[in-house]
Backbone:
């Protein structure tokens, strides 16, 4: 499955949080770092219903041959980042902040990539520019459908632009998401460019490497075959209500960006959550070189009738 951030209507996803900040005692903040942990969400199983709890910790594992990039330099904002002229993270986002204040922090518009504050930033955990690191405010449930297996819906109303989940570890092919942020940034392979143009700070060597990689296809993927969060149960739709957004926080390597799903529109309770998997038709080839086909049961008026 492709989770590209830029193919038409398509989602994408996830670097890992490599450290947490603690508020300094006394005057102001001291940017002191505390031991790392990767926060995620824990799924509780109730009979044939999974309920996403608002507590829990889940580790994100990287394959042995994948080295997690070092933490990027951070901004010097104290408390919360509010001044886009002074915040170095805002500068990376084209001199503004991607999240707007209403509804607890909404993504104003889809972008090539969102730079959030990270472990080396002096702001605290409640900074709005850490929105996708602050967890879900919505209760999601996994339920059984007639023809698509498991699916996910929200018990709560989700306003447009709210993060609904992060694509986490989905090794069956059904649960593999390509991290193709670099390809999206260049509008390659049929991916649609986003509204905001950003350029990721990188060395000459990294730039040459990225230019080569973006043309040959995604280098890394998220594999949620054996473990993952609730996002692994989100189905495809040809008319999706979620879109994929690449988010960089602890490091700035777009090849290993976090993939976060955001609401494209207001979502009413009990409506199935879905996004466009972004397969190009006839792009999936079986072991003997035969093109594979898979029927789509999304039920959208403009359904393409095939997932791939
Ligand atoms: C990431 S999983 C989604 C969760 C899955 N329904 C399950 O039960 O585990 C992707 C798989 O779900 C099924 N699926 C997702 N969207 C579908 C759709 N629109 N039509 C038919 N099957 C779909 C396909 O089997 C696909 O390979």
Residues:
């Amino acid at each position: 499955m492709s989770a590209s951030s830029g193919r038409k209507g398509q989602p994408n996803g996830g670097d890992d949080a490599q450290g947490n900040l603690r508020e300094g005692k006394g005057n102001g903040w001291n940017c002191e770092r505390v031991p790392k942990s990767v926060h995620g969400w824990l799924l509780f199983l109730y009979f044939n219903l999974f309920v996403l709890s608002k507590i829990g910790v889940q580790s994100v594992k990287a394959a042995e041959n994948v080295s997690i990039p070092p933490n990027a330099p951070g901004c010097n904002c104290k408390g919360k980042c509010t001044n886009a002229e002074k915040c170095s993270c805002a500068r990376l986002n084209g001199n503004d902040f991607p999240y707007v204040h209403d509804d607890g922090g909404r993504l104003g518009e889809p972008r090539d990539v969102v730079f959030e504050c990270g472990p080396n930033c002096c702001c605290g955990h409640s900074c709005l520019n850490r929105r996708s690191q602050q967890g879900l405010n919505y209760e999601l449930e996994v339920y059984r459908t007639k023809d698509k297996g498991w699916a996910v819906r929200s018990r709560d109303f989700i306003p447009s632009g709210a993060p609904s989940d992060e694509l986490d570890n989905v090794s069956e092919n059904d649960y593999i998401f390509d991290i193709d942020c670099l390809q999206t940034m260049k509008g390659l392979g049929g991916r649609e460019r986003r509204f905001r143009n950003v350029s990721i700070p990188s060395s000459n060597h990294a730039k040459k490497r990225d230019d080569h990689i973006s043309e040959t296809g995604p280098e890394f993927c998220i594999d949620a075959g054996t473990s993952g969060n609730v996002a692994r149960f989100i189905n495809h739709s040809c008319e999706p209500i979620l879109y994929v957004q690449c988010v960089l926080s602890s490091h700035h390597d777009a090849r290993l960006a976090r993939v976060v799903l955001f609401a494209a529109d207001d979502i009413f309770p009990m409506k199935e959550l879905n996004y466009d998997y972004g397969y190009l038709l006839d792009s999936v080839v079986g072991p003997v070189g035969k093109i594979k086909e898979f029927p789509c049961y999304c039920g959208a008026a403009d359904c393409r009738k095939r997932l791939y």
About this structure: The chain has one domain: 20-275. Residues 20-275 form a domain with the Beta-clip-like fold (CATH 2.170.270.10). The pocket of S-adenosylmethionine is lined by residues 148-151, 170, 174-175, 232-233, 235-236, 296-298, 307 (CB under 6 Å).
